Amino acid sequence: MLTLRFFARLREALGPQESWPFEEGLTVGRLRDALIARGGAHAEVLGRQALLRCARNQQMCAEDTPLADGDEVAFFPPVTGG
Prior knowledge:
The chain is of the alpha+beta class. It has helices at about 10-15, 30-35, 40-45; strands at about 1-5, 15-20, 55, 60, 70-75. The chain has one domain: Beta-grasp domain (Ubiquitin-like (UB roll)), CATH 3.10.20.30. It contains three helices and five strands, in the order βαβααβββ. It is globular. It starts with a strand and ends in a 6-residue tail after the last strand. This is Molybdopterin synthase sulfur carrier subunit.
């Protein structure tokens, strides 16, 4: 299971966190695409038109970063406040 965390405007739209089932071969980008495919608020704030940063286990990462079971993945705008 993955823990997803959202910050700033994403948190306002989606809440602070949610869980996601882990699948072999999953990357941060594929996870984002799966969340977008849910539609609704997920598609609106995570859509490819939105410039977002991501982190895996509190380390900044690229969307091609592979994920492992138990990872925490965070999504946030490029600039967030305290």
